[in-house]
Amino acid sequence: xxxxxxxxxxxxxxxxxxxxxxxxxxxxxxxxxxxxxxxxxxxxxxxxxxxxxxxxxxxxxxxxxxxxxxxxxxxxxxxxxxxxxxxxxxxxxxxxxxxxxxxxxxxxxxxxxxxxxxxxxxxxxxxxxxxxxxxxxxxxxxxxxxxxxxxxxxxxxxxxxxxxxxxxxxxxxxxxxxxxxxxxxxxxxxxxxxxxxxxxxxxxxxxxxxxxxxxxxxxxxxxxxxxxxxxxxxxxxxxxxxxxxxxxxxxxxxxxxxxxxxxxxxxxxxxxxxxxxxxxxxxxxxxxxxxxxxxxxxxxxxxxxxxxxxxxxxxxxxxxxxxxxxxxxxxxxxxxxxxxxxxxxxxxxxxxxxxxxxxxxxxxxxxxxxxxxxxxxxxxxxxxxxxxxxxxxxxxxxxxxxxxxxxxxxxxxxxxxxxxxxxxxxxxxxxxxxxxxxxxx
RNA sequence: GUGGCUGUAGCUCAGGAGUUAGAGCGCCGGUCUGUGGCACCGGAGGUCGCGGGUGCGAAGCCCGUCAGCCACCCCA
Length: 441
Hints:
about 450 residues, Rossmann fold, 2 domains, 8-stranded mixed beta sheet, 5-stranded mixed beta sheet
């Protein structure tokens, strides 16, 4: 044995994708692209590697710690992007004059975070972001919700819930409770409500954040309002009566609900959830999270929100925006767990077994002819028993097998075998393309 | 970054200090040399994650390391 062999292995949190998984990934990306484009979002890309100063300090200490950061061969301090939003901030600051507003872009790209991997959490994963930059209009907030909804639906999900909240509403409550200066801590605690329960949240607020028990109670009451989205919002509106900030949030959410009704989004998929606060500090308006009803434990698969000033660190120009990010790999992990991997066929419908090795050139030639007519065709390369070849074809999901030996070649015919049913028909070579068109339509 | 659990054939796992490490499924071959999925028969495939230590002896015990999973943290 050879001890100098290198052990094939991947880094922690980094993965290979086999054809089945990769086909599903590509499918998801295609769907995302289609949905984004249908709303007028334009594609962009940015480098995987940025100057560290571009990325540092944008998501708080946490994201700094998760940065893959190193010195390049030219002694530059560089880091790999950990999301697509910060690169977007740099991008818009740099290219604003060429873009014009509102600027709607989508960006599907790999990002890297050096955190401890778990199920649905990797060190390398793909995000599918879309944002609308340069407008404060609630129209864009509403459209963002529509995009998320359509995206999930087009991806083939039926049982999902979009939870929506508005930071202004929360801030209004906090102002009234005299907690404006403690909002970050309070909201972070509040975000955990579904996970750790009201008791623990109240404890965290009083113990770590420093609120009074009454203040914690006020905030929790808001988060625990129940009823239909509209009822919930009406109650919240009463809680922040007379508070301008809070009322702004309420009226924006009211518009959003009205728009959802008018657009006839299934109402059970939209929830006003006042406990959704988002850990990230930079959201200032509407916030969104998307959960799979059948797998809530995996967390949000598509999250986002409105921010006042995307690129304040890069340009004087104030750039408000709203957008969200689909976690492709997390979604894929969820689909795998739910057994939702589509049994996508090989993508190539026609299989030509190497039935008679003296006719290899004939097989290759007809395959090429059929591809020119628009069919996907694969020729088996090895001279193996026909049964084995058909087994391979079956496993790989072909629809038809084209079989021919001396008999067929001498009479100018092909056997077309339907792999799913084992039935077979004979077709003249001249009619081959027309027949395949009919069978594969 | 902190804590816990796990790592034995391609997959799911059993075993557990003492001769050549097992099962099911899968894979390959044969029965079936112009036609797959079934059945029967046969076969290949493992330095028991990797490295070190203790032992007469380690896959098993100890330490380290790598990887996976779970909780915290955070998040897609």
